[in-house]
Write a structure and sequence with these properties.
Number of domains: 2
Shape: flat
Radius of gyration: 30 Å
Subcellular location: Secreted
Structural class: alpha+beta
Distance between the termini: 113 Å
Protein name: ILEI domain-containing protein
Helix content: 10-25%
Oligomer: single chain
Number of helices: 6
Largest sheet: 5 strands, antiparallel
GO cellular component, one term: extracellular region
InterPro entries: FAM3 (IPR039220), ILEI/PANDER_dom (IPR039477)
Keywords: Disulfide bond, Secreted, Signal
């Protein structure tokens, strides 16, 4: 009897041990399954909330992956809603803005200053896009804002540290498009807005983000818009006081100190396309571009420079020749903003000093190629 009880106890112990092992082995799977079910329910709930018709705009502000710059349709935006996506400039990326699958601002058509687009307030059709360099004055930007028709949509994004070049009068005009946060736009920060002429102050959708602040840089807001954004009323626009002029552009240019004069140089001519500038494969990093330099081997050679898959200096291209061949690139877009050639054997010392004075501020990357030509 004692032996039988011992056997029963042994079998019972083995059974309990196996049962405990089985429970621990399956508990993780059950928890994982429950977590997945919960996640699916949350996602379905979010989709229902985003598809709801209660709000004109369903807005999200989130940390933006650097690669998330594509424009696309979103089937969660029920007609006649349209998807807008806007991101302010970050420490290493330019701003961008999308209307459905149409990119309003990109590296090809963006410029230093305030980039703007005006759209039909009923259909969302793009009426006009422009860039205003406000370095010396924001008068042209104000004149443009005054001409925007009633109830038109305004999409704008700054590029460059230009906050202190936007005057009080100009900011007041933005208020007619529902702006409010623009009052807090200061040095070291970027600004973006989706507004509409005639809505109340504070009803526009704005972002003011610091370039170097991890908590605000890289912000993206997107939403499904049903036009109009809010109720609009007729607003008379006028400039309060004379426009602000910070300096005489022509005088500064004569002194070689007007940085924007060089940045807005329109004499950049591109030559033939050269895939990856001769590299066997494309650059892997998003913030890198292919380049190629050839300084010549023989007296009959010509200096060659390829940037971004296009020839920039070559025979009879951008006056390439003996001496120093220079190209300036905007650091966040990789776009060539200016080119220059200096024959260092004839031009003398003075022209070199003028160039260095112009480039004394961190306004872009300078790429140089020397060529002896002997």
């Amino acid at each position: 009897m004692i032996k039988l009880n011992r056997r029963l106890l042994l079998w019972l112990a083995l059974f309990l041990t196996a049962f405990v092992i089985f429970r621990f082995a399956t508990i993780d799977d059950r928890n994982r399954a429950n977590d997945e079910k919960t996640l699916v329910k949350i996602q379905e709930k979010l989709k229902k909330e985003r598809a709801g018709n209660g709000d004109n705009l369903i807005e999200e502000v989130q940390e933006d992956p650097q690669t998330d710059t594509k424009c696309y349709y979103d089937n969660q935006c029920a007609l006649p809603q349209m998807l807008f996506r806007v991101r302010t400039e970050t420490d290493n990326l330019p701003p961008f803005a999308c209307l459905n699958d149409i990119k309003l601002f990109d590296t090809e058509n963006i410029g230093r200053g305030v980039n703007v687009a005006v759209l039909n307030g009923t259909t969302g059709d793009i009426i006009e896009k422009a860039t205003f360099d406000v370095t010396a004055s924001d008068e042209k930007l104000m004149t443009w804002l005054l001409k925007i028709p009633h109830a038109s949509l305004l999409v704008a994004a700054s590029f460059g540290d230009v906050a202190e070049h936007v005057s009080r009068q100009c900011r007041q005009l933005f208020e007619a498009f529902g702006a409010q946060k623009i009052d807090g736009w200061r040095v070291g920060s970027a600004y973006a807005i989706i507004g509409q002429r005639g809505i109340k102050r504070g009803e526009a959708h704005e972002i003011v983000s610091k370039f170097l602040d991890d908590h605000s840089a890289g912000k993206l807001f997107e939403g499904c818009f049903e036009l109009p954004i809010a109720e609009t009323t007729e607003v008379e626009l006028k400039v309060d006081g004379p426009p602000v002029h910070r300096a005489d552009e022509s005088k500064l240019a004569e002194l070689g100190a007007f940085e924007a004069d060089l940045l807005q140089n329109k004499d950049v001519e591109y030559g033939d396309k050269w895939k990856n500038c001769g590299m066997s494969r494309a650059c892997n990093e998003q913030d890198s571009i292919p380049v190629h330099f050839f300084s010549g081997e023989h007296k009959d050679d010509h200096p060659k420079m390829c940037i971004g898959g296009k020839m920039l200096f070559d025979k009879d291209l951008n006056k390439a020749g003996r001496g120093l061949n220079l190209a300036m690139l905007e650091p966040k877009t990789g776009k060539v903003t200016a080119v220059a050639h200096f024959d260092t054997y004839e031009d003398g010392y003075g022209i070199h000093v003028a160039v260095l004075v112009r480039l004394r501020k961190p306004c872009g990357f300078l790429v140089g190629l020397s060529y002896l030509g002997f």
